[in-house]
Amino acid sequence: MLPIEFGPRVCGHLESGADREWLVPDGLGGYAMGTVSGLRTRRYHGLLTVAGDTPASRRLGLVSLDPELILPSGATVRLGVHEWRSGDVDPRGYELLERFDLVDGLPRWRWRIGDLVLERELALAYGRSCLAVRHRLVSGGPARLGLAAVVTWRDGHGERRAAGPPPRIESTAGGAVVEDAFRLAGPDWTPEGQWWHGVYHREEAARGLTPDEDLWYAGRFAGALDQPGDTVSVLAWAGDLADEPPPADQVIEAARRRNRRVVAAGKPADEVAATLTLAADAFVVRTAAGPDVVAGYPWFGAWSRDTMIAYEGLFLSTGRPDEGRDLLRAYAGALADGMLANTADTGQPEYNTTDGTLWFLHAVARHVAVAKDTDLAAELLPALRAVLLGHLRTDPRVAASAEPAAFRGARYGIGVDPTDGLLTQGCAGEALTWMDARVDGEPVTQRAGKPVEVNALWINGLAAVAELAELLGQDAGPLPAARDRARAAFRRRFPSPAGWLYDVVDAPPPAYPRGAAARHDDDLLRPNQLLAWSLPYAPLDPDPATLRRLAEALLTPLGPRSLAPGSPGYVERHRGGPAERDSGYHQGTVWPWLIGPYADACRRAGLPTDELFAGLTAHLPELGLGSVSETADAVAPHDGTGAPFQAWSVAELLRVRPS
């Protein structure tokens, strides 16, 4: 894998070290996460974040284990790092860090105090909410190590205040149980019990969210480090608190071995591919319903659109088609009224997506093509056919001959326009494409009408399912004719006089109800049109001159912008509070996942792509270590924004990089 390592110039500079985040997932949606410097810059940072019934329902438990060395002279050296509401940073243990490394995906810190070098490593047990933290004396000594256990038990998105009751702590043999939710175990436990007031999170302040909280100092572990090689370790786990994990050494070594197996199974062609293969593993989780995908860390759960866009990169490019097969079967079983739920992160399933279900058709077709899985094709074909025929029910020419299909037809205005066979969608207050940001309940980029990528996906889905039927020797019914009609209309309607494709045709006026007489075609230059050239059954052949024009306006080192500079509403930097950030989410902000469609379109046009991925490769050690950010600013230096670890960003880069 790519060597990701930093010396004292980064580790010892607070801003540099605090900008770089590491992530260790547990395979369930929980994680440990923090920064190179050790400073918690987000409310989400901590050593034990526990997934609930779904990956999105997480709770933070163990916040930090602050090391403190007592030297033979009696001097005390504090190695933790905290920022406070006052602006003070105390202690400043980062100043003693001489290096940080990711080793097989696991973080390792080394502090130097004269000739004494202390090392910390940590891991989570895969498939269990269980943390192991090991400290080893590398050189020098003797010394005594204390570890202050700072805890909470609260929703991952929130805060806890000293105005309320402190966490319930019950001492046990060798440690404590916190809130009957998680357990700590280690040497020489001493209960303490004290609020730490006003711990500050600078990233939350930058995002316009509550920047501080109060934490509970529960107690401390301690152990002797008499000679090099001596260790002091702590375990923390949730779930069955009576089921004590293996020793920390075993948990850490098992995690290393598993990570090496994950990389080997992907058969990476180079160290970048190896790094991306391990990064992809973080997003594949096991739930009660089977495999699923976390869209991004630290705050996302499962989103069907993200899952299906990322499917090929996460599962087929990494050598795990069997898990992918189980996921696709589970999602097919969850179809309701011919649609996939967009997400359940909000507490209940939401079906407000036009394209998520169409991406599902694409994912199944890619699985069958790459894995040669005709058995899955036969199993899922009835469901796929029902989805398409359900959408076609709004076209009276097809509805009369369509087999029964549970689909509400007009939900969110989604259906086929009988005049041209194209897919139309939209209703007041909803943004149904991937550009789905809303401010105060109102869509920013509503894109009602016939969006370009939705219709490219519609044509792609009709063609893919028709081909699956033919592969299985079955009659494709009305699907080929519907494909041909929609493709002809697409080729007639979407090319614009501006020299690129319309982003939306037949867009209604801003105010509802929609009126046909006032409809217009939106020619804002956006990257959505890339899908018209990049999909396997794309409706158009790419024109090199058009792609070069798009690249000139949209392409950055981290992928395409979501809107061309100079366009109405263009936003340079994705910054500020929630409303400001959401207003600019798709108004110029760079989305690395779009590098996939762009690369596919270039290759179909015969354009070179060898140097296309250099910026994203260089990004791997910059922010979310070994991973790719959700978004980035539209202007230099293209700072990463949004979630620092994002599934479709990793998956699409992994999928389209040359092997």
Automatic annotation (TrEMBL):
Residues 279-655 form the Glycogen debranching enzyme C-terminal domain. Residues 20-226 form the Glycogen debranching enzyme bacterial and archaeal type N-terminal domain. InterPro entries: 6-hairpin_glycosidase_sf, 6hp_glycosidase-like_sf, AGL/Gdb1, GDE_C, Glycogen_debranch_N. Transmembrane segments: none annotated. Pfam families: GDE_C, GDE_N. This is Amylo-alpha-1,6-glucosidase. It comes from Plantactinospora solaniradicis. The lineage of its organism: Bacteria, Bacillati, Actinomycetota, Actinomycetes, Micromonosporales.
